[in-house]
Design goal:
With 734 residues, this protein is an alpha/beta fold. It is 32% helix and 21% strand. The protein contains 23 helices and 31 strands. It has an eleven-stranded mixed sheet with strand order 7-6-14-8-9-13-10-12-11-15-16, with helices on both faces. The longest helix is centred in the C-terminal third of the chain and has 27 residues. It starts with a strand and ends with a helix. Bound molecules: zinc ion and fe (iii) ion (FE). The site of zinc ion has 7 residues, from helix 3.
């Protein structure tokens, strides 16, 4: 029987696994890496062979991802006399897949801490089950010569392990030890320490309260103990955006935040994402995070493990980047760009080829709910139904990401950032080229956002023109809807509740509080929130008092703000673009409740409003639905003003506001459902990062007989939207 296995099956211990499985049955024959995966020809009883083949996918090695196992009976010239592993010349091809970077495995952890092991305290040990992959690959095929490890020839010991099929480092491309691999070093004030001394000094300095730059897997972090959060924020000139923490282990995390069983499982998983956990004590660690959640991850490289030792419980570990530029990732950048911020630099000799930020997620009803899908997940494919072509979807702008497809496999990019920044846009273009080379995808058509000014749109337009391939512009919220459909393998007409900050509407105005009805082929706008005038245009996104003022037109409430120009603009409509964005409605409400008047980052008003809410409150504000399912916020605004005048707490007002949105959404969705007969709804858009709404609205919809699908594999925000663009493009091509 010839058996062909496709997927991520090379460099992940697949042939040793086959070797073990075959020896259970005693088959003769051979196995080898082929240009497309792993192939084998085995001789034995047909029933036994079939049973063997059926066990491959379920029992695969940890890091393997089996796309397909195909069996066919074949003739052999002569009976086999043994089972052998054939070394193939064309070991790897571009058709095989590359594993993401994986956190240190239990076996390596044991060696790291075992004084008798040759890799004791060596911060770069790894094996077939763990270590760097995606971030060190320069080119394909994936072998050591084409990674950052090419400059570290293996010592005879490592080489022997690498060639030994029974060894857990068999064909682990980045394997190394302290004799042959990269070393860590520490620099501070002209002094340079190496190896263990470097780590010990860094530990000591951290405990003293120093702020250090630490080079990790996908970039540089700034690290310090949580007590130094305010100092770090001051040195970094950072807005109030929350910092991520790294905790020594899940038990340490549990002293600060509530950790459910499912959350603990994610924290300890091999992907080691940052998990957003609810604070144990509301308002605690306010300098680290101003909301009710703490982003916590566990040490994921051997270096992190050594850095924590057994006496550091938690460190802030925030990406070292500035004003939306990409994460810094070279030793040189650490020395030049971080000199004013970091007291010392803990660097190493292994170059990072591809930047990759930490992944960020909530665990929602026991399953992953991404805010950022990056390290540990990229470049694993997301499998979608109904795709065959090689396509490229270019995403949006602020949370840029792209996705390439090949057959049923789609490859969403890592977190890229805001394209308005030149370095970020440059990295975006480089990453598209890198992915196309890694996965051998020359796109035959391109999708982009409908917004004519997005740099991703301009990139798509130029490429399509130059290469003479079709280009399809996709309305922003239609793409969000399609992304959530694809994420859930839906191909039917659905109702899309698409709520975000801003997206270019089909009519040229700004949308974002949308109720759509449609499928991959098209959509109708069936409802939305009443557009809000943004006094001063973009200015209103930061100075959100402008939105509260526009919604209430209450001059007494906003007496302390520069109203003269604003009120003139509001009356005349001059420089007052209309927006139906849900993010803006949140901003306005946060301002009316005096929770936030100036946002230091986009969406801060919404974040603080969610954080303020009193979860025990079930009451709602009055609201009206105008002709065409338009949510009229006027009655609600009056009620908020009355509450505020009566001294009602911010917590109650915030809860009443979000309860109102849920009820409004349930009412509108039910209307659309009754009218259309469609009983499935998808929730997408950045506003659904709001856990208060996400934990209530689906239940309310389900009580009205509507099935609700939320994101599972990609982010609900603009980062996940390219997946929807791709599906819409695919449908448009027929
Ligand atoms: Zn390992
Ligand atoms: Fe969006």
């Amino acid at each position: 029987m010839r058996i062909e296995v496709r997927g991520i099956v090379q460099g992940v211990g697949f042939r040793p696994f086959i070797h073990r499985l075959v020896s259970e049955y005693g088959f003769f024959g051979w196995v080898r890496n082929s240009s497309r995966g792993v192939d084998m020809v085995l001789e034995g009883e047909e029933a036994q062979l079939r049973q063997f083949a059926e066990r491959i996918a379920p029992e695969k090695p940890l890091l393997a991802d089996v796309e397909s196992v195909e069996c066919s009976l074949c003739e052999i010239d002569e009976p086999f006399t043994a089972f052998e592993i054939i070394e193939s010349r064309t070991m790897q091809s571009r058709d095989t897949l590359i594993s993401p970077d994986i956190g240190i495995c239990p076996d390596c952890l044991r060696e790291l801490l075992d004084p008798k092991d040759k890799r004791y305290r060596y911060p770069f040990l790894n094996c077939t089950n763990c270590g760097p992959r995606f971030t060190i690959i320069r080119d394909i095929p994936y072998d050591r010569a084409k990674t950052s490890m090419s400059v570290f020839p293996m010592c005879p010991d490592c080489e022997r392990e690498y060639r030994d099929i029974t060894n857990r480092r068999y064909h682990a491309e980045p394997t190394c030890c302290s004799d042959c691999g990269p070393q860590v070093f520490y620099e501070e004030a002209g002094e340079r320490l190496e190896r263990d001394e470097a780590i010990e000094r860094a530990r000591q300095r951290l405990k003293e309260g120093a702020i250090l730059a630490v080079k990790g897997l996908g970039g540089l972090h700034l690290a310090c103990i949580p007590e130094r959060a305010a100092e770090l924020r001051a040195r970094k000139h950072r807005d109030s955006k929350p910092f991520a923490l790294m905790c020594r282990n899940a038990d340490c995390a549990e002293t600060m935040a509530v950790v459910t069983e499912a959350e603990r499982e994610r924290l300890e998983s091999r992907q080691k994402p940052i998990v957003l956990l609810k604070k144990r004590v509301r308002g605690s660690f306010a300098d680290v995070s101003e909301n009710n959640y703490m982003g916590i991850m566990l040490p994921y490289t051997p270096l992190h493990v050594l850095l924590f030792g057994d006496d550091i419980d938690a460190l802030i570990m925030t990406s070292a980047n500035f004003s939306d530029k990409p994460i810094l990732y070279t030793n040189e950048e650490a020395r030049t760009e971080l000199a004013a911020i970091a007291d010392g630099l803990l660097l190493n000799e292994r170059d990072i080829q591809t930047r990759c930020d930490d992944s960020l997620m909530y665990v929602c009803n026991g399953s992953d709910y991404f805010v950022r899908r990056s390290r540990g997940y990229v470049p694993y494919p997301v499998r979608l139904k109904g795709l065959e072509r090689k396509l490229l979807a270019c995403g949006a702008e602020q949370k840029a990401s792209f996705v390439l497809s090949r057959g049923s496999s789609t490859f969403p990019s890592q977190h890229i950032g805001d394209l308005k920044n030149f370095e970020t846009f440059d990295n975006y273009r480089q990453q598209i080229a890198h992915f196309e080379r890694m996965f051998d995808i020359a796109p035959t058509a391109i999708a982009c956002d409908l917004h004519p000014d997005y740099l991703s749109t301009q990139y798509a337009r130029e490429r399509a023109e130059k290469e003479g391939i079709p280009l399809v512009s996709v309305q922003h919220h239609h793409a969000h809807m399609a992304a959530c459909m694809a994420d859930n393998d839906l191909d039917e007409t659905v109702i899309g509740l698409i709520w975000d900050g801003v997206g270019y509407g089909s009519d040229g105005s700004v949308w974002g509080g949308e109720f759509l009805l449609g499928d991959y082929g098209g959509f109708e706008r069936k409802g939305h929130i009443r557009p809000i005038p943004l006094i001063g245009g973009d200015k209103a996104v930061k100075e959100i008092w402008r939105i509260g003022y526009a919604m209430s037109r209450d001059e007494s409430l906003y007496g302390d703000y520069p109203l003269s120009v604003a009120s003139m603009q509001l009356r005349s409509g001059l420089n007052c673009p209309l927006s139906s964005g849900m993010g803006r409605l949140f901003d306005g409400a946060a301002s009316l409740m005096d929770i936030c008047q100036y946002a230091t980052y986009e969406g801060e008003g919404a974040v603080l409003l969610e954080a303020a809410a009193d979860e025990s409150c079930d009451e709602v504000y009055p609201f009206a639905l105008a002709e065409g399912n338009i949510f009229d916020y006027e009655p609600m605004v009056r009620a908020i003003l009355a509450d505020r005048a009566a001294g009602v707490s911010k917590g109650i007002m915030a809860a009443r506001f979000m309860n109102t949105l849920c009820l409004m959404a349930a009412d509108i969705t039910e209307r659309i459902s009754l009218e259309s007969g469609v009983k499935t709804a998808v929730l997408s858009g950045g506003s659904f990062q709001n856990m208060y709404i996400l934990s209530r609205l689906p239940r309310m919809l389900e009580q009205r007989g509507i099935r609700v699908c939320t994101h599972r594999r990609v982010s609900c925000n603009d980062e996940g939207l390219s997946l929807g663009q791709l599906m819409i493009l695919n449908r448009a091509l027929g």
